[in-house]
Amino acid sequence: MKSVLLLGRGLSEYTDMFNLKDDELAGKRILDCAAGVSSFRSEMNRKGFDVTAVDPIYSRKPDELEALAEESFKRHRIFHGDFLSGIKVKGVPLEDYRRAVFRKFLSDYREDPAGYIAGELPHLPFSDLQFDLVLSANLLFLYEEKLSYRFHVEAVREMLRVGREVRIFPVTNIHRRRRSIYLQGIMDEFADHEILIQRVPYHEETGCNEMLIIKSIES
Ligand SMILES: C[S@@+](CC[C@H](N)C(=O)[O-])C[C@H]1O[C@@H](n2cnc3c(N)ncnc32)[C@H](O)[C@@H]1O
């Protein structure tokens, strides 16, 4: 999807988007799905956690990603204009923060390419239940105008195939004023799972502070 911006969030933002707690993550195999240029994998693996990242962009060389990220910074400025100019993440202006995240991502991507798998929803290159937790940030629901309802259903089904628990953030569309038109349908579609919307502390860019959790009901 060409129109998706290649801007990555850092570990502190993932922690807030997904209500993550270190003691609950210890020993878990975690997949960051649609990880893009996020530094989540880099920062988590440095802390000793087991995180794999998957995204279609990982078929590209590091230098190509650098050029694409630069292009995204330009588009982001044009698209959001002044609206985001005052926003800070952890006290740092948004673009400076995103650039720091990108540098962390890129050095890990160069040093440990095995942790970055090229693949795309709705067909991931992993075996059934290879992961305990699958996190997916800033793709589903957000881009509801570009991605069909059918795609959302297939994407969620695929993430549940490879992981026991799936968390999706945000549940709003990119215009941020309301929950995605697909949300209720997805909740109905997976009603035979444990499914809940949870409030989270994050809201910097999306204005949204809700995440969706879906997991298999243990028999
Ligand atoms: C806005 S970025 C979010 C990156 C990261 N999750 C974050 O929150 O910082 C969206 C990512 O979705 C990826 N993407 C687009 N289509 C995809 C698909 N069908 N399956 C998996 N990832 C996809 C893009 O390549 C891009 O890296």
Itemize the secondary structure elements and their pairings.
Elements: H1 11-17, H2 22-25, E1 29-33, H3 40-46, E2 50-54, H4 62-80, E3 88-89, E4 92-93, H5 94-111, E5 116-117, E6 131-137, H6 149-162, E7 163-169, H7 183-189, E8 194-199, E9 210-215
Parallel strand pairs: 1-2, 1-6, 2-5, 6-7
Antiparallel strand pairs: 3-4, 7-9, 8-9
Helix pairs in contact: 3-5, 4-5
Bound molecules: S-adenosylmethionine (SAM).
S-adenosylmethionine binds at residues 1, 4-9, 34-36, 38, 55-57, 120-121, 137-139.
GO molecular function: methyltransferase activity
InterPro entries: SAM-dependent_MTases_sf (IPR029063)
GO biological process, one term: methylation
What does this 3D model show about the protein?
With 219 residues, the chain is an alpha/beta fold. The protein has 2 domains: 11-59 and 115-215, Rossmann fold, CATH 3.40.50.150; 62-111. 35% of the residues lie in helices and 19% in strands. The protein has 7 helices and 9 strands, in the order ααβαβαββαββαβαββ. The protein has a 7-stranded mixed beta sheet with strand order 5-2-1-6-7-9-8. A two-stranded antiparallel ribbon has the order 3-4. Strand 1, helix 3 (40-46) and strand 2 (50-54) form a beta-alpha-beta unit. The model has no long low-confidence stretch (mean pLDDT 91). S-adenosylmethionine is lined by residues 1, 4-9, 34-36, 38, 55-57, 120-121, 137-139. This is Class I SAM-dependent methyltransferase. GO terms for molecular function: methyltransferase activity.
